[in-house]
Write a structure and sequence with these properties.
With 220 residues, the protein is mostly beta strands. It has one domain: 3 Solenoid (UDP N-Acetylglucosamine Acyltransferase, domain 1). It is 3% helix and 30% strand. It is built from 1 helix and 25 strands. The strands form 5 sheets. A 9-stranded mixed β-sheet has the order 1-4-7-10-13-16-19-21-22, with no helix packed on it. The longest helix is centred in the N-terminal third of the chain and has 7 residues. It is globular and about 55 Å long. The relative contact order is 0.12. The protein binds coenzyme A and zinc ion (ZN). Coenzyme A binds next to loops.
Length: 220
C-alpha cells in the first residue's frame, strides 16, 4: 500500500477544526449536581463534569473537556482544552495536563516521591512538611486504564501508555510504553495506531501508519 503523501509533519492537525471549535465554544460548562466544584476553580466553556467529581481550589480546566464520574482534580492542577478524563481518575497537585490528552479510567497520578504521614518526631505532616514533584502530560498523549504515573516524569506528545502500566521514566513523544516498569515497545501515530518501519532519514524520525495511510514525522 502506498502512502497518500510522503510525510505528514507532527506540528499540524490533519484537518482544520477551527470553525467547529469556535461554534462549540458557545455555552457554559455543564456540571452534574453531585459534583463538588470549588468557587476558586476555573472551568472552561463547554466542559462537562459528571457525577461525584471534585475540582479543588485554583484548579484550571480548559474548554470542551469531559471529566468523568468520580474524578478528583486537586488544588492548582492545570488541565488544557479538549481533554478527556475517564471515571475515577486522580489528578494530584503538581500534575499539568496539556490540550488534547486522554486519561483512561482509574489512572492514578502521584506527587510525593518519598511519602510519609508523619515527621521524624511523630507529628502529622502538614502542607509545608513535604515536597511536590511535578509531572507533565504533553499535547495529544493518552494514558491507558489503571496506569500509575510516578511523579517527576514527562509523558511526551502523542505518546501512548498501555493499560496497567507503571510509568517511572520520561516517555518520548509518540512512544508506546507498557508494563511495570513501563518500557517502550514501539511508536504510535497521532491516531494511536502502531507505526511501522520507523527509521531515521535526514535527521528526522519517520514511521508509516497503515490506518492513516501516510508517513508520520515523529522527530522528538
Ligand atoms: C498497549 C496497546 C495499545 C497495545 O495494543 P496492540 O498493539 O493491539 O497489542 P497486542 O494485543 O498486539 O499486543 C502486543 C504485545 O504487547 C502486550 N501488551 C499489550 N498491551 C499490553 C499492556 N497494556 N501491558 C502489557 N503488555 C501489553 C501483549 O501481551 C503482546 O505481547 P506478546 O506479543 O508477548 O503476546 C493496548 O493493549 C492497550 O493497552 N491500550 C490501552 C487500552 C486502554 O486502557 N484504553 C483506555 C480507555 S478504555
Ligand atoms: Zn495513524
Amino acid at each position: 500500500m502506498m502512502p497518500r503523501e510522503l510525510v505528514r509533519t507532527d506540528g499540524k492537525p490533519d484537518r482544520d477544526d477551527s470553525a467547529e471549535s469556535d461554534s462549540m465554544k458557545i455555552g457554559p460548562p455543564v456540571i452534574h449536581p453531585t459534583a463538588i466544584i470549588s468557587e476558586q476553580a476555573e472551568i472552561g466553556a463547554g466542559t462537562h463534569i459528571w457525577a461525584f467529581a471534585q475540582v479543588r481550589e485554583y484548579a484550571v480546566i480548559g474548554d470542551h473537556c469531559n471529566i468523568g464520574k468520580g474524578v478528583y482534580v486537586d488544588a492548582r492542577v492545570q488541565i488544557g482544552s479538549n481533554v478527556k478524563i475517564q471515571n475515577n481518575v486522580s489528578v494530584f497537585e503538581g500534575v499539568t495536563v496539556a490540550d488534547g490528552v486522554f486519561i483512561g479510567p482509574h489512572v492514578c497520578f502521584t506527587n510525593d516521591l518519598f511519602p510519609r504521614a508523619i515527621n521524624l518526631d511523630g507529628t502529622l505532616k502538614g502542607a509545608e512538611d513535604w515536597l511536590i514533584t511535578p509531572t507533565e502530560v504533553e499535547y495529544g498523549a493518552s494514558i491507558g486504564a489503571a496506569a500509575v504515573v510516578r511523579c517527576g516524569v514527562t509523558i511526551g506528545r502523542f505518546a501512548l501508555v498501555g493499560a496497567g502500566a507503571i510509568v517511572t521514566r520520561d516517555v518520548a513523544p509518540h512512544a508506546l510504553v507498557v508494563g511495570s516498569p513501563a518500557r517502550q515497545i514501539g511508536y504510535v501515530c497521532r491516531c494511536a495506531y502502531l507505526l511501522e518501519r520507523v527509521h531515521e532519514e535526514d535527521g528526522r524520525l519517520l514511521g508509516f501508519c497503515p490506518r492513516c495511510d501516510l508517513v508520520r514525522d515523529i522527530t522528538p
